[in-house]
Design a protein that fits this description.
Layout: H1 2-24, H2 29-39, H3 50-55, H4 62-82, E1 90-94, E2 113-117, E3 129-133, H5 140-155, E4 159-162, H6 168-178, E5 183-186, H7 200-208, E6 212-215, H8 227-238, E7 241-244, H9 253-262, E8 266-269, H10 280-287, E9 291-292, H11 313-321, H12 329-340, H13 345-352, H14 356-368, E10 372-375, E11 378-381
Parallel strand pairs: 3-4, 3-7, 4-5, 5-6, 7-8, 8-9
Antiparallel strand pairs: 1-2, 2-6, 10-11
Helix pairs in contact: 1-4, 5-6, 8-9
């Protein structure tokens, strides 16, 4: 056990020294991958093998390679002298390792290595992965859609990938865990500097429940603006399909959707209300050719599974129980209004053309039966009773 910990720490030091030296010598991502593949291990890069270099197809000039090696050794010794302690479940996967995500190897901008916490690299090579992204300030509708989607993906044993950010990302991770599913968070900072800080406990929970938190950045790299588009390409490439549950007109999720389309991944977008600007990016994606997502069944073909992904019996029961025939005409009218957009008691009274006293009683019954939620003074229909 002690030997394993020592070897793991050694690999972490070598990986960080490699990145720091490559950054300083301005070595391209392609050449970084080539160096690792040719050397087989990071330790081997400490030695200069003339014969291997002559037979290599790498584009690095000899003087650049020598400069890189010198820097690599110097940085490695410096990191060794710092003698930092690392969590036991902190690991690194090189682009030539069997644990490295095979889907990432399909893209030109494949990282040369990834740091991971949780040690469960196998989930990234599972048969079905879905990335879920969206707004950092979702509406109640966006929250409900994400909850239903994440729970159902977890029940069908699909791995949910997201970016660990506040909003839709956080909800996707949390609801997947709540449904005892597996999830992976891709960070735009180093694993020793997790961002956002408010999600530190969430990242720990992901790791402890069979999930994984990954980053291609140095362990102590702080969150930087330019890191997040770079992070987004991994979110897009890691999965077989990308789902945008809710996103405004200038949302950064559009960058992720562009990456997914470029990589040949199926892009899905959940439609929202035309009266709200919170789903304009989703509507724009649908106009540009993204598939409209109404329920989890829509993902079946994209994931290339032998059998169609069906709603769980529990959700089917909820859906059947929420059919039009199970509500009175007044309740149905209230729910139809709330499906368009959340509303206050006064606004809902006007839209449904019902007295406030009568409406309050109806809402109390609908809340009790789990068809309506109330948050921040607004009433909203629960998405579990409907197709998205």
């Amino acid at each position: 056990m002690f030997t394993d910990i020592t070897q793991n720490k050694e690999k972490l030091l070598l990986a960080q020294a490699f990145l720091l030296a490559a950054n300083k010598c301005k070595i391209s991502l392609r050449d970084r991958r080539e160096l690792i593949i040719q050397a087989i291990s990071l330790q081997n890069l400490m030695q200069h093998h003339k014969k291997g270099r002559e037979e290599s197809e790498a584009s690095l000039r000899e003087d650049v390679f020598i400069s890189f090696q010198i820097t690599y050794r110097e940085v490695y010794k410096q990191l060794q002298s710092e003698n930092k302690n690392y969590p036991a479940d902190l690991t690194v996967s090189l682009c030539n390792d069997s644990t490295f995500p095979k889907r990432l190897k399909e893209i030109d901008s494949c990282p040369c290595l990834l740091f991971g916490q949780g040690a469960n690299w196998d989930i990234l090579n599972s048969s079905g992965l879905v990335s879920v992204v969206g707004s950092r300030t979702p509406s109640h509708y966006g929250m409900e859609v994400t909850r239903c989607l994440a729970e159902e993906l977890a029940r069908t044993d699909l791995v949910v990938v997201s970016g660990g950010a506040v909003g839709i990302d956080t909800l996707a991770h949390r609801h997947t865990l709540a449904a005892e599913g597996r999830t992976c968070a891709v960070l735009g900072s180093g694993l020793n500097k997790p961002y956002p800080h408010s999600n530190k406990s969430l990242f720990s929970e992901i790791c402890s429940k069979g999930g994984l938190v990954i980053s291609e950045f140095l362990l102590d790299e702080p969150p930087k603006k330019q890191n997040f588009p770079q992070r987004n390409r991994l979110i897009a490439a890691l999965a077989d399909a990308l789902v945008v549950t809710e996103a405004g007109e200038k949302s950064g999720t559009l960058i992720t959707a562009d990456f997914a389309a470029d990589y040949g991944r199926e892009v899905f977008a959940v439609p929202g209300s035309i009266f709200s600007g919170r789903s304009r990016a989703c509507h724009q994606l649908i106009k540009e050719g993204a598939s409209l997502l109404q329920d989890v069944n829509d993902l079946g073909i994209a994931l290339s599974q032998k059998s169609e992904v069906f709603l769980s019996s529990e959700l089917k029961t909820n859906t059947a129980g929420a059919g039009k025939g199970s509500f009175t005409k007044e309740e149905q009218k209230v729910l139809e209004c709330l499906c368009i957009a959340p509303a206050s008691l006064t606004d809902l009274s006007r839209k449904a053309e019902l007295p406030i006293e009568r409406l309050a009683l109806l809402l109390a019954h609908l809340q009790k039966d789990g068809h309506v939620d109330r948050a921040r003074g607004l009433y909203a229909a629960r998405a579990s009773g409907y197709n998205f």
